[in-house]
Amino acid sequence: MTSILNADLHCHSVVSDGTLTPEELAARAANNGVELWALTDHDEIGGQHRAAAAARAQGMKYLTGAEISITFAGQTVHIVGLGFDPDDTRMQQGLYQTRGGRGQRAMAMSDSLAAVGIRGAYEGALQHAGNPELVSRTHFARFLVEAGICRDTNEVFRKYLTEGKPGFVPHRWATLRDAVGWIVDAGGVAVIAHPARYSFSANEEYALFSEFKAHGGQAVEVVTGSHTAAEYVKYADMAREFGLAASRGSDFHSPDESRTDLGALPYLPGGLTPVWELLAGRIQ
Ligand code: AMP
Ligand code: MN
Ligand code: MN
Ligand code: MN
After folding, report:
1. Residue ranges with CB less than 5 Å from ion ligand 3
2. Which of 108, 115, 144 is nearest to 127 (CA)?
3. Which of 1, 89, 128, 211 has its CB surrounded by the most CB atoms within 10 Å?
4. Cα→Cα distances 221→119, 125, 151, 181, 235, Å
5. Structural contact between residues 240 and 259, judged by C-beta atoms closer than 8 angstroms
């Protein structure tokens, strides 16, 4: 397969912090011309069988997916897994452990918001969560908008939910080695998600790419809803430098919040190995 393929290999459903069901996402993706799709919920693969069936019903090809939260050099980084066996026990256990701290973290976030006068945030966020095991900052953001405290979720993140702000609670996620290992051992390909979103120094970013590769990681998101056109070029160069394949995904969460719709991004730049070339045998 060539790089001229409408692949969307990064998005979220109600199983994590999206607002559409896997079936609604599949219909929207197909309607937007997506040919190869993956649902990549945060730290959770409970939607995979539904998503694969919905893709089939819509005539799209499908790859299993997940977006795993890890901690690297003091920051939260996201590693997308594609094409792994969704019934793999170690992968399921690893994700279960990764989700584990979210309940306590959510209560601590709620306490720290209460300290600046915002009450009931835990219960409010839970109302927005489709999956009680997966309360994320996004659900808090939706609650704060609903409560009239901010105009939109971007404003909530800016004022409350990012490092140094009152609702932010630091958290230690999985390790890079573990997340890449779970994906690779389950027959999948590991992908560094939206690398431009992190605030690493050049040295830290180099370390992330080098260690990721050393642990068996094989790809990086080049074209994502989180990157500018200049960042497509920068990470296409990084992919070539590190011998990584390239992925493409909108990171769509919601029709009301996401800037980039499913399947609406530019194609991958030429001269790169598309990640789906590595996964030919895993496409359903
Ligand atoms: P969590 O895994 O609970 O830390 O939540 C992370 C999620 O919050 C990401 O996957 C995004 O969906 C969302 N998010 C993070 N930063 C921002 C931001 N600056 N603006 C809007 N959404 C954000
Ligand atoms: Mn998210
Ligand atoms: Mn992410
Ligand atoms: Mn994402």
Report:
1. 78, 193
2. 144
3. 128
4. 38, 29, 30, 19, 8
5. no
Residue 230's contacts (CB-CB under 8 Å, 6 or more residues apart) are: none
Sign of CA dihedral 85, 91, 92, 98: negative
At 226, give phi and psi (nearest 5°).
-90, -5
Residue 67 in this model has a pLDDT that exceeds 80: yes
Pocket (CB within 6 angstroms of ligand 1): 17, 42, 69, 136-138, 153-154, 157, 253
CA–chain centroid gap for 154, Å, is 17
Per-residue tokens: 174: 């999985």
Length of the chain (residues): 284
Paired tokens of 148: 């009239």
| Residue corresponding to tokens 């409010």 | 124
Q: Which amino acid is at 105?
A: R
Q: Which percentage of the chain shows pLDDT scores above 90?
A: 99
Q: Does residue 106 surpass a pLDDT of 90?
A: yes
| Dist. CA 78 → ligand 3 center (Å) | 5
Q: In the predicted model, is pLDDT for residue 1 greater than 70?
A: no
pTM above 0.90, yes or no: yes
